[in-house]
Design a protein that fits this description.
By secondary structure, the protein is mainly α. Helices cover about 75% and strands about 0% of the residues. It has helices at about 1-15, 25-35, 40-50, 50-60, 65, 85-105, 105-115, 115-140, 155-170, 175-185, 190-215, 220-250, 255-275. The chain starts with a helix and ends with a helix. The model has no long low-confidence stretch (mean pLDDT about 90).
Length: about 280
């Protein structure tokens, strides 16, 4: 029962932090320092990634009309295929290329050295500063890109390289890194967030499948229960968080998340410094 409650807590944290640009993996690693699931290290690595599928499904449900490229309704005057959505998905795939190459070739090599509290804290602070600087730099400027259709393949690839930073350094935040990259090249906040959400779908499905294949699908009943519960909770929480964020950024900038990251990063560094002293 205690492990189930822990899984629910991890699901809540995942659902909140996956979409806010404050690093879901970073928060999960930090939470694990204080609330540890009594599972094998191998299953914990799978849990950390696959629980994000619950959060991803919230994007699929909320943005179905913007991501499903076929018109199955009665009004088919423009054809069954929605060309603009197909083009958007090609841009998403281009943005996925850097992370896909890294995931296949280097993930297992780099992860043991960088997935720790110190790296998380440093990246929380660095990208917190980045959010504040970029928002100040953009103040008063009109975005160059105000729709997904206006994104070029070059823009998508640049955003994909920023996503790669998050893949390498936990604490960066996948959504945070891609939003920073998008803002930097003149994409509006709303479009930055939407493209980040859509980019998460193939990336997290791919990362989860890779982890599951490497693990071998050999779950015990307890492990399967913990994973499913965590995913369901992450899905429910994500539905509310995504709706909140899309409403928030229409009237506000991302600086509050930058300050949150800086404060949390400093607290984490201080905590682990005192712990080691």
């Amino acid at each position: 029962m205690i492990e189930i409650l822990k899984s629910i807590l991890f699901g809540i944290v995942e659902g909140i932090t996956e979409w806010l640009p404050i690093s879901s993996t970073g928060h999960m690693i930090l939470l694990n320092e204080f609330v540890t699931l009594e599972v094998s290290p191998e299953f914990w690595e799978v849990f950390l990634v696959v629980i994000q599928l619950g959060a991803i499904m919230a994007v699929v449900v909320l943005f179905w009309n913007k991501i499903f490229p076929f018109d199955l309704g009665k009004n088919r005057k423009k054809g069954i295929i929605k060309t603009d959505i197909f083009v958007m998905w090609f841009k998403v795939l281009v943005a996925c290329i850097p992370a896909m190459i890294y995931g296949v070739l280097l993930d297992d090599i780099v992860e043991p050295y960088l997935y720790n509290a110190t790296t998380v804290a440093i990246m929380l602070i660095l990208f917190g500063v980045a959010f504040i600087l970029i928002e100040n730099w953009n103040k008063g400027k009109k975005p160059r890109i105000n729709s997904l259709a206006a994104l070029t393949y070059r823009d998508a690839l640049i955003i994909g390289f920023f996503q790669l930073i998050a893949a390498v350094f936990p604490g960066t935040s996948r959504s945070g890194a891609t939003i920073v990259g998008a803002l930097l090249i003149g994409v509006s906040r709303v479009v930055s967030a939407e493209f980040t959400f859509f980019l998460a779908i193939p990336v997290m499905f791919g990362a989860s499948l890779l982890k599951l294949v490497k693990f071998g699908f050999g779950f015990t009943m307890t492990e399967a229960s913990l994973l499913i519960i965590g995913m369901v909770v992450a899905f429910v929480v994500s539905m509310g968080v995504i709706s909140f964020l899309m409403g928030y950024i229409k009237k506000h900038d991302f600086k509050i998340f930058g300050w949150y990251r800086i404060v949390l990063g400093i607290i984490v560094l201080a905590y682990f410094y005192l712990l080691a002293a």
